[in-house]
Amino acid sequence: MRKLILQMQVSVDGFVGAAGDHDWQVWGWGDENRWDEALKRDFNTYIRSVDTILLSRKMVDDGYLSHWGQAAKRYPQDPFYAFAQRVIDVPKVVLSDRLGVSRWERTVVRSGDLPREVGALKAEGGGNIAVFGGAGFASSLIAAGLVDEFQFYVNPATLGGGTRIFDQAGVRKLCLLGSKAYECGIVVNRYAPTT
Fold this sequence. Notes:
The chain has 195 residues and is α/β, with parallel strands linked by helices. It is built from six helices and eight strands; from the N terminus they run βαβαααββαβαβββ. It comes from Ciceribacter ferrooxidans.
C-alpha cells in the first residue's frame, strides 16, 4: 500500500496560516526564496519519490499548477526548480464534489466519500502520494485517519494565532521519524501517526 504524505509549512507555534499573511514563510510560491542549498536538494530528492500528487480543489483554483508550470518553463536548467517539472509530470488527483472534469494536464478529478477515494488511491500500485493543500483539506484527511506521514517545514516565525490543522478529531500521538535543521532556519520534522 502506498503512503500518503502530508507536507505543510508551519510556524514555530503550530499555525499553518494567518489571515492572508505569507511573509512568515521562508519560501512561498514566489520566485524569491531563502531556502539553503541543502534544503533545496533534500526537497528535490523527496519529490522524486512521489508518483502521485493529491491536491485540494482550492489549491488548484488558487493557481498551484499554473504557477509551478510557469516556473518549470522559466528555470529549465536550474537544479532547484527540478521539482517544478516533477509537479507537472506526475499524475495529479483533485478531490472535489464541485468539479465535474479536470481543466489541468495529467490531472483527474475524483468526487465522493473522502476515505473511500483516498483509500482506493493508496491501494493502487506505485510510489508515495504527496498531499499539497490548505488547512481545511489537511484537517479533513487527518480527521479521517488517512495520513501515513507528516512532513512539517517549521519556519522560524511565530504567528500568535491563525489556522491550525489539528483542531478536529483524529491523530493525537505522533512518532518522530526524523528531524533536520537547515541554515535558512527551517527545521523539517517527519512524523507518523501512532495507533
